[in-house]
Amino acid sequence: MSKSGTGRFDTHAIARSPTAAGIDPDQAGAITDAVRLAAEHDSAGIDTGALATKADLAVLETRLIKWLVGSVLTAAGIVTAAGVTLGIAILRALAALAGNG
Asked: Is 28 helix (H, G, I), strand (E, B) or coil?
């Protein structure tokens, strides 16, 4: 494929090849548009190797679920400990009042 001096593909030159091979000019235009879009996408600097795969997302989902369950259990443990501590403090206060009364 030839490029013009501006860094863009010469879409006219691309469209001439299919037309010369007997492809309908409308179809050649569609092919030209597809090639242009592919070239723009490719030149956008997207590193497809850095994109997450479905397997990567599954691993991440598992890690997030484990973290969430651990956080919930930790919070439940803290609330339970606080409740037990408060209950003991109340029982001691009641026992002190009963002993003095």
From this structure: helix
Contact, 30 vs 38, CB < 8 A?
no
Count structural domains, the chain.
2
Q: What is the pLDDT of residues 9-54, one digit of tens each?
A: 666 676 667 777 788 888 888 887 887 787 776 656 667 677 788 9
Residues 36 and 66 in one domain: no
Phi, psi of 9 (to 5 degrees): -75, 145
Domain that holds residue 34: 1-49
Residue carrying the six token digits 């850095």: 50
Dist CA 28 CA 36 (whole Å): 12
Q: Are residues 70 and 32 in the same domain?
A: no
